[in-house]
Each structure stands twice: as structure tokens, then as C-alpha cells.
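Record pair follows.
FIRST:
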Amino acid sequence: MASRPTIAFLSDFGTRDHYAGVMKGVVLSICPDAVLVDVSHDLPAHDIPFAARELAATYKYFPPGTIFLVVVDPGVGSARRGIAADVGDWRFVAPDNGVLTGVFQDTPPKKVVELTERRYARPTVSRTFEGRDRFAPAAAWLAKGIQLPALGRVISDYVQVDLVQPVIDDAGIRGQVVRVDRFGNVVTNISRRVCEKLGGADGALQIEIGGRDVSRVVSTFSEIAVGEIGALFGSTDHLEFAAQAASAADVMGVSVGAPVSVFRR
């Protein structure tokens, strides 16, 4: 028996309002067999770079054939385009505002199309809710079996945003905090691979965040003593800071954008 198509849904809608739910309803009206997976609806509102990083950290864990429906869209109703993309073993439907940047940097797209074919949208498209009227139908029709080119014309000038990368020079690595999760763990844009360019990713590193030395590199949260801040490479293999059963962000008084430096001892 053929497997049911999976649509993974990522947005900044939250769960208080009806927006995410009604988009699921549109999908199921077109493709009742679809399996809908909520990746998250609690992304920071309007934060395209944040959403791009979250999506890039997510998509490869889904089975081949998954369709990602991504709506973080501060430009809704403007001249910005809607797009669908074929990337590796996955497909994506999103506004053309750079939200797919992290995915495209990780795996260059095979094909990107603009959503111009009106028969694969709802009859009336609201200028304040294109997620419901354009993006959800496009994802549903892909799940139903149409091919990407049916949705519109192929483009190559899709939008990408600047995802701030760490600076590497003879002095070391300078990066920044890009995320604080719900546990207060402080995640940076410095990967293990980048740290290894200094000759290691272990206790031989001197690490500073917001002017504070946090040079104890551990492997797990349980190695961090109560009252201590530890550095580790988390589930996305990026440098992060954690406290034992506490918010490292609150303890250190740091937030997104705080500077992080890594030096070789």
C-alpha cells in the first residue's frame, strides 16, 4: 500500500488564533490523505532569518517526499512572490522572502517555481492571508500528485537573506547568539566544524560570551553542576551554553545577538 503524503507545517501563527488550523483544513479539503505534522507555530513573529535557520535544522529529519509548508510572511499582500521548490528529496512551499535561505545554502535547489497557476489556489485570494489561499492549496496539490512545474513558471532570482555567519581569522572565531530555546539554552551560529578549524572542539578552547568566560566544554547537560554554565555542541552541532535545571540566558543576562568569541588556548 502506498504511503500517505506528509506535509510539515512551520509558521509564526501561534496556536491562539485560527490561522494554522484553517490552513490545515484547506489542505485536507484538497488532499484528505495528507498527514500533517506541526513542526512549530511559535517562531518569533516576522523573523525571517530565525525561521530560515529553524527550517534548515529540521528538514533532513523528515522522510523523502515530505512537503514543507512554511509561512513567516511579513510582506503578505505585497508584490513579493509565492514559490515552490524541489530540494534534494523534499519540496517546499513558501513566500519568496528568504525563508528558504538556510535550506538552499545547505542543499542547492533543483528547481524553483513562482506560484502563478491560479487553478491551484483558492478562487479568491485574500491579500492578508495568502497562507490559506495560495500556499496551503499549492502544498496540498503537490501532496495529491501534481508536479512542481504545474504550479507556475521556473525562476532563478528567488530571494535569499543574510544569515549572519561567524567571522574566522588569526585571532579566533567571532559569532553571536541566534536562538534561546524554551529551556533557556543559548544557541550560537558557531558550528563544531568551524571550531575544529582552530584545531579542536574540546577543552582546549577559550570561549567568551557577553564578556564572560565559559570555557568548560561538556558533552551532556548532566555534566554541568548546579550554579555552573557549561558550553557544549547541541543537537544541531552548534556551540551552545546551558545551565543545570535553569535558564542559561537568564543566569548570564544574554539574548539573541550577544557576541560570542572562541580562541585557541
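SECOND:
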Amino acid sequence: MSHAIYTEERAVKINFSFYFSIAIFITGTILGSLVQYYSYFPVLIGSSLLLLLIRDSELIRNLNKLSTEGKISFTPKRSIQIRKSRNGLIFFTTIIFLPLFLAFLLPVPINLTSALGLVFSWPLSTIEEAILIKEVEKRNKKRIYAFTEWIEVIDGMYIKEYGYVLKD
């Protein structure tokens, strides 16, 4: 049985989605504060932080290890991947359908701004993610690279290991 191992590395950097998220976030903030700001901002900030924790939980939990060792790596395990995908599916489905249910539960200005807060939490979490990455790079004076190590076996390719590494 023959196999080969490939390592793919890419710099974690700010791209077009960051700037697009800023434009969307500014538009949403203007809309939300025109209607009712005191129900918009708590929902927006809370859901964007929760979304950031779900999207980048592995990086956030291992920031100290990344700073001291310079590398964090994860081996994909089926049970962990199933749990992560189930949690993500529940959360993202909630973000999509909760604004629809809020229309029946709350008065119009509150449900409108709460729905806007939930919808615009995704762009804000993208902005928070870029700020987090830039802060880690500034503290360590190195760039963060995401890596994936693939193993090719006769019947297909599988992820052997993935994670983040700090390099000059």
C-alpha cells in the first residue's frame, strides 16, 4: 500500500471579505440605529462574539500554546468533527430562522432591530476575526499561517493534521 503526504500552507490574511464586511456592517449599523439602537447593539455584539467563538474556537482556546510553541495542530477525529458540525448547523440554522420567529414574538421596532442584529453579526464576527489575527501577529511579531497536511492513500486523500503555525 503506497501513500504520499502533502502539506499545504497559506497565510492567514485580510482579504476582500474583510472590506466587504466593513461596508455591510456600517450599513447595518446605520439602519439599526435609525430604528432602535438599544435593542440592536446587544443582539449584534452578543451574537457576533458567539459566532466568533464557534468559528475560531480552536484558535482562541490555544492562543497561549501558539505563542509559546509556535505551532498548534489538530488531528481530525470523527466524533469531534460530527459534534462540531452539529453545533455549527444548530447555530447557523438559529441565526437564519430566529429573525423569522421574532416577527411573531416581539413588537415591530424591537423584532426588526433584533433581526438586523442577528443578520449583521456575521460581518462583525469577520471583522473581529481579522482584529484577533492581527493582534496575535503583532504580539508575536510573526505571521500566522494555516496548514493542512494531506495523506494520499490508494483510494483517496485524507486530512492527517491541520492547524496554525507562526513564521517570520
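COMMENT: The longest helix spans residues 78-105.
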